[in-house]
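input
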Amino acid sequence: MAESYEPPNAKKHSRLGKQAFLVETMHVAVWCYVRKLGEQAQ
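output
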């Protein structure tokens, strides 16, 4: 029963978590892209 209990703002937290995950993924993708461009420029 304790496992199924959700605090009132659990949905808000999960949405923020998803947004943070997307931002993190975008940062990694951009970083990889910039590195690839840098390697080509050499």
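quick obs: The chain is about 75% helix and 0% strand.
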